[in-house]
TrEMBL record:
Protein's cellular compartments: Cell inner membrane; Cell membrane
Family label: Belongs to the binding-protein-dependent transport system permease family.
Chief location: membrane
Annotated TM spans: 26-47, 90-112, 124-144, 164-186, 213-235, 263-286, 307-329, 370-389, 409-432, 444-465, 491-518, 541-562
Ranges of residues in domain ABC transmembrane type-1: 86-281, 364-562
Native organism: Micrococcus luteus (strain ATCC 4698 / DSM 20030 / JCM 1464 / CCM 169 / CCUG 5858 / IAM 1056 / NBRC 3333 / NCIMB 9278 / NCTC 2665 / VKM Ac-2230) (Micrococcus lysodeikticus)
Name by which UniProt lists this protein: ABC-type Fe3+ transport system, permease component
Any one cellular-component term (Gene Ontology): plasma membrane
Keyword annotations from UniProtKB, A to Z: Cell inner membrane, Cell membrane, Membrane, Transmembrane, Transmembrane helix, Transport
Superkingdom assignment: Bacteria
UniProt keyword annotation of Membrane present: yes
Topology term for the membrane: Multi-pass membrane protein
Amino acid sequence: MSALTEVAAPGTDLPRRRARGRGDGLGPWWLVAAVLPVAFLLVFFAWPVAAMLWRGIGGDADAFTGAVDLTAFGETLARERTWRILGQTLGMAAAGTVVSVALGLPTAFVLHRRRVPGRAVLRALVLVPFVLPTVVVGVAFRALLAPGGPLGFTGLDQTTTAVVLAMVFFNVSVVVRQVGALWNALDPRQTEAARTLGASPWWAFRTVTLPQLAPAIAASAALVFLFCASAFGIVQTLGRPGYGTLESEIWVQTSVYLDLRTAAVFSVLQFAVVLAAVVVSGVTAARTQRALRLRETPPARLTRADAVPVAVMLAVVALVVAPILTLVVRSFHTRHGWGLGNYELLSTSAGSGFVGGSTPAQALEQSLRVAVDATLVTLVVAVPLALLLTRPFRSRAALAAQRALDGALLLPLGVSAVTVGFGFVVSLRATFPELAASGVLVPLAQAVVALPLAVRALVPVLAAVDPRLREAARTLGAGPWRVLATVDGPFLARGVGVAAGFAFAVSLGEFGATSFLASPSAPTLPVLIARLLGRPGADNYGMALAAATVLAVLSAGIMLVCERLRPRGPAGAGGL
């Protein structure tokens, strides 16, 4: 879990130790090891994204030929609908970011700097939503806010407010985790000195603590903005028809109108939004960066002055618990009363008339199969990549290449899954239709989405290896490969399980790219859930609730195992 929420600060340096001794004797072999991950990123990320961008400016995405023709670009930008969708995307992302930060800061303070009953349970509850698939989050809020739900009287179902609340539900844990981790390590003596000089608690926070937390706040806010701007699953399942974002419009133009040129223009706009967020994050982090005095201290007792932060923390817990609890409870409610009817329908062909013959149980089986394939592909690429990123290279060229590879790895994290999926459509699927027919593209696209998370789960573990252990092994006569196997190997083995769990959970719930590539006759469970929600009938809605509950339990269970497997201390503190 911690790896998921800490990895994603764009521009964050990875922790690693540099050896000052001689090389490890595997210099040429590291060049060979770099071929696989570099080729994977070029073929399955750079090519699809470049093809999408090229089509957006009028070229032939299949062959990167043809003159640049900005006619479609100009026509799309001239439409009022384009600017309305762009405004909706930026507005909802900004609102989700502001509310997530406003709720996340006091929650991080209470859960990391104060002793509260059940603190470990509360922290786990707050962090759970981030590992849930976006489709599950959307279904949970539909169950809470729809007519007949506990908060159906509010009239918030399928409104912008509902979408923003779901975004906050999904992303407040990012702020709590990143800011809380730094807050917990700040030296409290500076704040105590300000209080001794007569500063009020609020003034001491504003003048001492807040500037120290600014880099973490900026990084987490940028990450939350990226997630909110690319919350395709939430918008698709929770937003009202006709109210879209850039990502949902890409899907509509591709799947409904078959207008790939217009979809490519919207993809370019979405890419520009992501790039702008990354640049703003980098500039803000650079301007607020400062040397900090870190001194982790035990949390203090609650005082009356903490009443407001505690109230905010309880509101966040309620925001987290209410949709999940409602989802689980309502999944047992059928049109005939309470019972297991919705779960029994999962194994029937009740929905075969509109999902190509697949039942929810078959869709789950397909999701598990695809997730296994995607996990295997992810690990094959992530292991050599993580080893490369943590090698103590000495030459400037090698270090520059290492930094460039590290930066390139962040790009799949910033580019939305919808953009990746659409890029696959206009490049790989168009060039190799037999691959699309075989279903291979779905796990490959999911592996692209999961790769940064898996690598960030491995890097802190390998970076924790003391270089002196390698030197000692070489001094005792061990060859380069034996050093790698006996020194790095045990650390790598501990991290692979966590990386595999992250990759599997991400692939299992992936919706953005899969919605473009999944076969109508063999949908994954998230895709089928979205289809069920779009169809009338109590049975369809009940199956969607039951399927979402199953998916939520699987995802949360996998991440719980990952958290148990994750090494404690420095080796497990980094990552995503």
